[in-house]
């Protein structure tokens, strides 16, 4: 999508999944920006209107595939357009899970070719929240600059933002 050079600054949306223990939800709600909860069916059925960041916990469930990606996240990522607009992944995990630490976040980053933007444990510390806010703010600036470049007819830039 092309925007005029005077278009509003990009505000990257955050889509998160959180289980009943709510640690990722607590983190997401402290980010100070619009967040979308993938445990809600309407959210899962929607497609991000622009660039978005996934925030996911890892859950080693002991199923045959040893799958750690929460099912709502997997379903949301089945949309090619959502995958295309994904710009990065953040993960919540617990180091007690050893080699499986952040397995979902890392696997999604690997298969999508998008970067792991930030990792933290459980609900995150105040420092973690500040750091994630800073990373998202930097991303907004980079994407806004890319949109301005596109509007002026240049090519290249941040992947997955269109
Ligand atoms: C059953 C179970 C399995 C988990 N598996 C992993 C895992 O494989 N890797 C990891 O880094 N963290 C793992 N965790 C830790 C969670 O990802 C972490 O606590 C996260 O903050 C939970 O977020 P939520 O409360 O929003 O669901 C597991 C936690 C539980 C309860």
UniProtKB/TrEMBL annotation:
NCBIfam families: nrdI. InterPro entries: Flavoprotein-like_sf (IPR029039), RNR_NrdI (IPR004465). It comes from the Bacteria. This is Class Ib ribonucleoside-diphosphate reductase assembly flavoprotein NrdI. It comes from Oerskovia douganii. The gene is nrdI. GO terms for molecular function: FMN binding. The lineage of its organism: Bacteria, Bacillati, Actinomycetota, Actinomycetes, Micrococcales.
């Amino acid at each position: 999508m092309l925007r005029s050079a005077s278009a509003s600054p990009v505000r990257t949306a955050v889509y998160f999944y959180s289980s009943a223990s709510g640690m990722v939800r607590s983190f997401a709600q402290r980010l100070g920006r619009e967040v979308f909860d993938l445990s809600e069916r309407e959210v899962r059925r929607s497609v991000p209107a622009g660039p978005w960041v996934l925030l996911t916990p890892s859950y080693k469930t002991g199923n045959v595939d040893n799958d750690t990606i929460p099912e709502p996240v997997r379903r949301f990522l089945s949309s090619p357009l959502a995958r295309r607009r994904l710009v990065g992944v953040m993960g919540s995990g617990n180091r007690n899970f050893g080699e499986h630490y952040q397995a979902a976040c890392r696997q999604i980053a690997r298969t999508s070719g998008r970067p792991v933007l930030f990792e933290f444990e459980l609900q995150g510390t105040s420092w973690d929240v500040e750091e994630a806010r800073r990373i998202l703010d930097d991303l907004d600036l980079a994407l806004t600059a890319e949109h301005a470049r596109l509007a002026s007819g240049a090519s290249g830039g941040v992947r997955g933002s269109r």
